[in-house]
Q: What sequence folds into this?
């Protein structure tokens, strides 16, 4: 009798350990506001009543048309107490840190840009990303009608780990800012906004920023100091056309993502910052 009891207890303990390990390995998405964090597992998100099938015609991570099971970002922000009309920061597992300007997620409606958290099912993993050993999962921010808003390719964050309420990047990282004398309509001032949305997710400026993917764009030198203007433009548009190596991670930014005027403004910002090292 005692042997059977001990065997039963051992089986129960083994089951608990397996269940605990499975729970720990289940992907989690954390949403944080005012020091409070709400966490969802992939299974919980997939089981939600607001989970829907979302088809995007121009998927940034994989290219072409893709369909995902996903939950509206606005619904999750509301549950977590994150103001949807405030600046939001999204961190990825690989060190990518995307900045979402105030109001970007509130452009809803039939004709507006709408964001979703796509969830990778464990039983049906997504394809590996081109040139990478991982997929875009476990969570991936995808957009419907992105052309209707200020949605950059950098706002299609994949391998997402956390979504958090934050402050404007210029307030958090004053070292990325320009002198007050630079007016709001100056090319360099407009270029600062282009930099925040397209470059800050991977790079820092004067040490300001949180990403660990790319190099600082002003320390120890600014790219305007070691690239000819035409080469710098080519690097931003198509990095592989300028320099290529196996570990290159920088994507190209076509005119649909950074129009010509915005590219002019971005280069004006970089050029201005080489005189403003901190």
A:
């Amino acid at each position: 009798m005692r042997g059977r009891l001990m065997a039963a207890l051992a089986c129960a303990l083994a089951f608990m350990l397996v269940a605990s390990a499975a729970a720990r390995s289940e992907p989690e998405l954390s949403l944080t506001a005012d020091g409070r964090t709400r966490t969802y597992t992939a299974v919980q998100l997939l089981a939600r009543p607001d989970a829907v099938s979302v088809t995007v015609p121009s998927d940034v991570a994989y290219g072409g048309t893709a369909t995902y099971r996903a939950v509206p970002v606005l619904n999750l922000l509301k549950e977590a107490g994150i103001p949807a009309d405030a600046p939001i920061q999204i961190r990825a597992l690989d060190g990518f840190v995307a900045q979402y300007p105030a109001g970007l997620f509130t452009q809803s409606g039939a004709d507006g840009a709408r964001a979703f958290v796509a969830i990778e099912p464990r039983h049906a993993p997504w394809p590996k990303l081109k040139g990478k050993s991982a997929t875009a999962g476990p969570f991936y921010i995808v957009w419907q009608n992105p052309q209707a808003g200020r949605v950059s390719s950098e706002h299609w964050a994949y391998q997402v780990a956390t979504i958090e309420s934050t402050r404007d990047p210029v307030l958090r990282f004053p070292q990325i800012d320009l002198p007050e004398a630079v007016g709001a309509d100056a090319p360099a001032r407009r270029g600062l906004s282009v930099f925040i949305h397209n470059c800050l997710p991977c790079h820092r400026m004067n040490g300001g920023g949180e990403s660990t993917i790319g190099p600082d764009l002003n320390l120890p030198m600014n790219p305007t100091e070691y690239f000819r203007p035409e080469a710098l433009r080519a690097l931003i548009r198509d990095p592989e056309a300028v320099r290529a190596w196996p570990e290159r991670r920088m994507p190209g930014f076509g005119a649909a993502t950074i129009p010509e005027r915005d590219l002019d403004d971005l280069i004006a910002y970089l050029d201005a910052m080489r005189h403003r090292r901190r």
About this structure: Helices lie at 2-25, 42-46, 73-80, 169-172, 187-198, 223-226, 229-237, 260-273. The longest strand covers residues 66-72.
